[in-house]
Amino acid sequence: MLDFAHAYRVEALSIGDKVGIFTSNADPRTLNTSACPVGSAYFQTDGTVWRRIGVNASDWVRLSVLPFYFFVLADSTVVLIPWVTPGVLAFTLTDGSVGTLTVEI
Question: 3-class DSSP state for residue 5?
């Protein structure tokens, strides 16, 4: 079983000095991120995920706000549904058809 109490605690990870993985509770565009390489990932503690696309302080793009469930339907349609707590989630596909998804955790 994964025991978070035994996890390594670091402020950032450098992968081959080419990209980094960073985290904080602040929006990365408001921080001094000049040392973060282009292509780096930033995990904001509210669940927002960012990617650095340039060298300017504002060159972070939001990738997602919440984790998503990914489904591939029989016709190769990809469906992204926001992660939710247990319950029933209604959805509408691009062709207009509707359905529900029961989430059990």
Answer: helix
Name the region of 53 (left: φ>0; alpha: ψ -120 to 50; beta: rest).
alpha
Give the pLDDT confidence of 61-90 residue by residue, as tens digits. Answer: 988 665 555 566 777 666 666 665 567 777
Residues in the chain: 105
Beta strands in 1-105 (DSSP E): 12-15, 19-24, 41-44, 49-52, 60-64, 68-72, 78-82, 87-92, 98-103
Residue for token pair 């978070």: 4
pTM for the structure as a whole:
0.58
Tokens of 79: 């469906």
pLDDT of residue 28: 94
Other C-beta atoms closer than 10 Å to the C-beta of 36 total 23
